[in-house]
Design brief:
Layout (H helix, E strand, L loop, with lengths): L2 H24 L22 H14 L3 H14 L4 H13 L38 H25 L5 H22 L6 H24 L1 H5 L3 H27 L3 H25 L8 H23 L4 H26 L5 H22 L16 H6 L7
């Protein structure tokens, strides 16, 4: 064997000898090996009953079953007092029982070494309000203001006495295009659901006020062209209402549910007032008093609904269900009287049952939807990574 071959064989042997100790050092120490290794083996997900109890308790808590979660955590601490899952369960159980926990144990080494993410910082009310912009809110705003523009086109054409088809078509096109284009352009940075509902509801209530003021004012009865007066008043009311809705949102930052509840207060108090007057067979002092009554009742209902919404906020979905209950109750009351009296009902029982049905429908739907909105998260939970994966719908830290 030549000198070069011997030298090459020696170099290979030295390289292998140097590599073996490094390879052994990189291998994790076996728990059965000597030397007092401190490595912690992750507990088995399928065989460790303590961690299974912990996961089951956290899943129950994530689904709102706090009593069941407290029972499971208490069972965990009783059966496995020295287990690391029991240590992690202690602050959560204390929180559920109303006891302040001073420390939160760290995640178990080797099992859940991924720290839980910090909760996102809540937006400041002065910057983003209680809601975040959504595409649905922007679409709702654009749709509402497009209809607003179409109605403005009709009102302008009537006010200026359009007779040919060309002015009508042009007015409707300009109104719809203006409402669509302006709302799209002004909402390019995003729109919150509360702002969209505030602007659209303000436009609707402005339309209502313009109509009622035109019908109730003495000027309406003295003009030769009543349609022009009504349409002009409605157009002005829409524009003023749009601005009022924007100002209300700027000052209070209401949610879409609060705006819906405010509008519902105005609608239902107006209907209840008119039903009460019909039930009592109150004769109006003149032909305009009924319009003033409806206008004042709607304003009182709006103020009352707004105050109630500020103290008892709820989602727009729950408000819609309550409205459906009021409508169903009113129709049931009327239907019961018609079934009993036939085609010619007496005003007193007819309007009386309608009023009772309205109040009962609103009250019952409010009561039965008390759990409609999602419950508030339970504080104090410290989940493991696997527990979060098992209950991804809600995160509790």
């Amino acid at each position: 064997m030549g000198t070069r071959t011997l030298a090459l064989a020696a170099l290979v042997a030295l390289g292998v000898a140097a590599w073996i100790p490094r390879a052994r050092a990189q291998q994790p120490a076996s728990p059965d090996a000597g030397g007092g290794s401190n490595a912690v083996e992750p507990p088995g997900q399928s065989t460790d009953a303590a961690w299974a109890l912990y996961h089951e308790a956290f899943s129950a808590l994530a689904q709102g079953r706090s009593d069941e979660a407290a029972r499971l955590l208490s069972d965990l601490r009783t059966r496995y007092p020295d287990h690391e899952a029991s240590a992690r369960a202690t602050p959560l159980l204390d929180s559920l029982r109303g006891v302040r926990s001073e420390t939160v144990p760290p995640a178990p080494t080797g099992y859940d070494n991924v720290p839980p993410p910090a909760p996102p910082e809540a937006p400041r009310p002065s910057e983003a309000g209680p809601e975040q912009p959504t595409g649905t809110a922007r679409a709702e705003l654009v749709m509402g203001q497009t209809l607003h523009g179409i109605l403005l086109g009709v009102e302008v054409c009537v006010a200026f006495g359009c007779e040919d088809v060309q002015p009508w078509v042009l007015s409707l096109m300009l109104g719809a295009g203006g409402g669509f284009g302006l709302s799209m352009w002004l909402s390019v940075d995003g729109v919150t659901p509360g702002l969209a509902r505030s602007l659209n509801s303000g436009t609707e209530w402005g339309l209502w006020h313009g109509l009622m003021l035109a019908l109730a004012s003495s000027y309406y009865g003295s003009t030769s062209d009543e349609a022009k007066t009504v349409m002009t008043s409605m157009a002005i009311g829409q524009l003023v209402g749009l601005g009022a809705g924007g100002l209300a949102y700027y000052l209070a930052h209401p949610t879409t549910g609060q705006v819906s509840l405010t509008s519902s207060g105005g609608i239902w108090l107006t209907i209840a007032t008119l039903l009460t007057l019909a039930f009592l067979e109150v004769e109006p002092a003149d032909e305009t008093s009924i319009f003033w009554t409806a206008l004042i009742a709607s304003d009182i209902g709006l103020v009352g609904g707004g105050l109630f919404a500020s103290q008892m906020p709820m989602s727009a979905g729950r408000v819609l269900l309550i409205d459906a209950g009021g409508l169903l109750g009113t129709l049931l009351g009327m239907g019961i009287d018609l079934l009993a009296e036939g085609d010619d009902p007496s005003p007193k029982p007819f309007f009386g049952l309608a009023l009772v049905g309205l109040l009962a429908g609103l009250g019952l739907s409010y009561y039965f939807t008390r759990d409609w909105d999602e419950p508030e998260p339970q504080p104090g939970a410290v989940p493991t990574q696997h527990a979060v994966e098992r209950a991804p719908a809600a995160t509790y830290w």
